[in-house]
Each structure stands twice: as structure tokens, then as C-alpha cells.
Specification:
3-stranded antiparallel β-sheet; globular; 46% helix; 15 helices; alpha+beta; two-stranded antiparallel ribbon
Length: 340
């Protein structure tokens, strides 16, 4: 699997005003970087995570480094290195132009966003393509042994084992569709990737997407490959996550009080909480479709005249992922915050 590497462009100055809030632990993390250094967040967290965060697991330290590095990119301290700059694989933009990948992507649904464009919500098509791209860059240059069976005469065949240096998933597919290819040998290549240490921190849900993306690539190219992979072994499962912290009502109240949110933040939280919204439905549907429904309920576009006695206000929306239409309600606190 291809790691994401960063190059340090500038030295972080904790005294400088970068125009954004930098938490102390993120500042400590960024201060440890050296100009010209090429670093991967997983390796950095493993080696230095204990020095700037009290979190005691590798995964939690990686999350802290992830947020620090994202901030570093935003303020111009870090730059993401492309796969070509690292000397392996191909850029995503070139990968999705490969004929077999184009054919595969055309058979999947794109983004269901209808009001905004978002690169982070690409639908099944984009999600699968990016997972397949990572597999492609991992498999590129791998030397594997495949059994080839040749005709050596009338009704006779000769078996020969050949070492092949793969050029990517398109090349893997090419060898797989050859007559008399041995499916188990190709399954082993795929499972070697799934079992790669780089995938150890993936959750069972993420691994399911990766497995489905790879299987789908072969299937959509009319060459289905069959294998089983237990996503619950060695990966964080829903059972493991049951004990993780969740936001209760007391903590939500703290967000509204001690947290001192901005008016926009407070309003977004109240609308999500009252109406029951995931983030994508909030930004692409509620944000564009709630206004007319509010005006219809209150009978006026003059929000200063909205009568709170009419609350709760029904808001009908369609969930993006499932296209399921549902109705929820906004009560007085959310309406007052929206009016403010």
C-alpha cells in the first residue's frame, strides 16, 4: 500500500500568527519537523507521538499527527508528495484514464450531491476508484510467480512457473483472463495486499470497502474473482467501538456553553441534533431546502416575525446515500438560532 508522504517546506514558528488557531500539541508536533524532511504520518507518530500527545495507542497518536499535518498543509509548512515524486505508482488522474479502470468506473454510481460539488463525496464510483488506485500502486513492481499452462501437442499440456513483474492492476487483470490461469495464485496476490502491515490500522468497515472495490474491478471487467477475507480479524470492529466515547446530552450542553461556539457552529449543531442529520444531508439538502419549508410554515420570509409557538417545524428531506425521504422537526432553540 502506498504511504502518503509529506515534504517540510518551512520551519514552523510557534510565535507567528498563521491566521488559524494552533493547539499546543499540534504546535509541538510541527516544531519537530525539519526543512526538506520527507515524512510519513504513521512513521512519525510511531517514533515521536509520545513526545507531544498523552494518547497511548498507535492509532490515537496517528490521528493526532494527521490533524497536525493537515494544519501544517493549510499554513504552508507541509506539502503532500505525489506517487511519481516518490518514485512509484502513477498519479490518480492518470490511473482513472486506464481503459479497464474507465470501464469499471462507468458501471458504478457517482455522487448524489445535487446542490454542491464536493471532491470528498464522490459516490461509490470515486470511493472504489481511489481504493483500487492504492492497490494498483502497491502491486506495481511486485514480482510474483504465476503458473502458465501451454499446449505441447494434441490433447497434451505443459505446465511452467514464470516470474512476472507486475505493471499494475490492469496487468494483473491481463494475466488473470489468460486461458487456464490459476485463480488461487491471483487471490494470493490480493490477500497479500489485504494482509499488508499498512492495512493493520484500517477498520472492518474500511476493509470491506477495499475488498469490494477489488472484487468489483474484476467483476465489472467480466472476469470475476472469488475469495473470502475475514474483515473482523486484525481490524477494529463495531464491537470494539462500542466502548468508545460518544456524545451525550451533558457533553452537548458543554459544547454550547463552555465550548463557546460561534453562532454558525451553534446553529449547525442544533439543526443536526433537532432534525437528526448526517453532515452530507445537512450541507447538500437541509442548507438548500429548509428555507422554503420554514417560510411555508411561518407564513413569511421575515424571520423576525416567526412565531415560535408554531414549533416544532416539520422539515422533509431525502437522505443522500439511500434516497430515503424522511421528516424531522426543528424546535424553538434551533429556530431562534437560525433567526439570529
Amino acid at each position: 500500500m502506498v504511504k502518503q508522504y509529506y515534504k517540510v517546506l518551512k520551519k514552523f514558528n510557534p510565535q507567528k500568527d498563521y491566521g488559524v488557531k494552533v493547539r499546543p500539541q499540534y504546535a509541538t508536533c510541527l516544531s519537530m519537523l525539519k526543512i526538506g524532511q520527507k515524512i510519513n504520518q504513521k512513521d512519525f507518530a510511531k517514533e515521536f507521538g509520545h513526545e507531544f500527545t498523552h494518547k497511548n495507542t498507535q492509532k490515537s497518536r496517528e490521528e493526532a499527527v494527521y490533524h497536525a499535518f493537515m494544519l501544517g498543509r493549510k499554513i504552508g509548512i507541509l506539502q503532500v508528495l505525489s506517487t511519481t515524486e516518490l518514485g512509484y505508482g502513477i498519479p490518480y488522474e492518470d490511473f482513472i484514464k486506464i481503459k479497464s479502470v474507465v470501464y469499471f468506473m462507468k458501471q458504478h454510481r457517482g455522487s448524489r450531491f445535487k446542490n454542491i460539488e464536493s471532491k470528498s463525496h464522490e459516490g461509490t464510483r470515486g470511493t472504489y476508484a481511489r481504493k483500487l488506485w492504492k492497490f494498483n500502486n502497491w502491486v506495481t513492481g511486485k514480482e510474483v510467480e504465476f503458473t502458465k499452462i501451454y499446449s505441447s501437442g494434441k490433447d497434451t499440456f505443459k505446465q511452467k512457473t514464470e516470474k512476472i513483474k507486475l505493471k499494475g492492476v490492469d496487468d494483473l487483470l491481463h494475466h488473470y483472463v489468460q486461458p487456464l490461469s490459476q485463480e488461487r495464485e491471483f487471490v494470493k496476490v490480493i490477500k497479500d495486499y489485504l494482509l499488508d502491515p499498512e492495512n493493520e490500522t484500517q477498520s472492518d468497515k474500511s476493509m470491506k470497502v477495499i475488498v469490494n472495490a477489488i472484487k468489483s474491478y474484476f467483476e465489472k471487467n467480466d472476469a470475476p474473482i472469488n475469495f473470502k477475507y475475514n474483515i473482523k480479524i486484525g481490524h477494529t470492529t463495531s464491537e470494539d467501538r462500542e466502548g468508545e466515547a460518544s456524545l451525550n446530552l451533558d457533553e452537548l450542553m458543554q459544547l454550547f456553553t463552555v465550548g463557546n461556539p460561534t453562532l454558525v457552529q451553534k446553529t449547525a449543531l442544533l439543526c443536526k441534533f433537532h432534525r437528526g442529520l448526517d453532515t452530507s444531508t445537512l450541507i447538500d439538502r437541509f442548507n438548500f431546502e429548509a428555507w422554503e419549508q420554514l417560510v411555508s410554515c411561518f407564513g413569511t420570509e421575515n424571520y423576525k416575525k416567526w412565531d415560535a409557538n408554531l414549533c416544532p417545524v416539520p422539515i422533509k428531506l431525502t437522505r443522500i446515500k439511500t434516497a430515503y425521504q424522511h421528516t424531522g422537526f426543528l424546535d424553538k432553540d434551533a429556530i431562534d438560532s437560525l433567526a439570529d
